Amino acid sequence: MDRLRILTTNESALHFGLACCRVLARFLTSEKDPSFSDLKKDLEDLSEAVEALVKVGEKLGEDHTEAVGSFGRACPFPGVFQGSTHILLSTEGDYKERVRKVS
Q1: What pLDDT, in 10s, does the model give residues 33-85?
Q2: Which long-range contacts (CB under 8 A, 24 or more apart) does 49-52 make?
Q3: What does each C-alpha distance from 96 to 27, 87, 92, 101 come to in angstroms?
Q4: Which of 88, 91, 92, 103 is deepest in the core (most CB within 10 A)?
Q5: Sign of CA dihedral 32, 29, 43, 52
Q6: What are phi and psi of 61, to 5 degrees?
Q7: What is the pLDDT of residue 79?
Q8: Where are the domains of the chain?
Q9: What's the rounded Cα separation, in Å, for the pair 93 and 75?
Q10: Nearest alpha-carbon partner for 22 in 47, 49, 2, 48
Q11: Cα–Cα distance between 95 and 103 in angstroms, integer?
Q12: Residue 38: partners with Cβ closer than 8 Å, 6 or more residues away
């Protein structure tokens, strides 16, 4: 968390930044894609991130563009966290392929 403090002092942004790091680490280092429940467990000490993740889970069956529209603005947290996590959980392929599917 101290490394993130270089970027911001806002506690909410720090928690979402840490959550993003954990989600990406899980996807990049796991042999198989983590599940929604795996990610929820990884974030259990970050209540704001868990709340945001639950909203992502509710939208997993929806088209990515529509789901992201329901999360709110994409640049600030939690929107950027929710949109990024939704694409990772709702598509297959490597990370670059997933991002390109919605670009």
Answers
A1: 899 999 999 999 999 999 999 999 999 999 888 898 898 766 788 888 898 89
A2: 49/15, 49/16, 49/18, 49/19, 49/78, 49/81, 51/78, 52/16, 52/19, 52/77, 52/78, 52/81, 52/82
A3: 12, 11, 10, 9
A4: 88
A5: negative
A6: -80, -5
A7: 86
A8: 4-102
A9: 24
A10: 49
A11: 13
A12: 26
C-alpha distances out from residue 64 to 90, 95, 101, 103, Å = 8, 15, 10, 11
> Which tokens go with 24?
């990406």
Non-local (6+) Cβ contacts of 14 within 8 A are 1, 4, 5, 8
Q: At 14, list the tokens.
A: 């720090």
More reliable by pLDDT, 96 or 18:
18
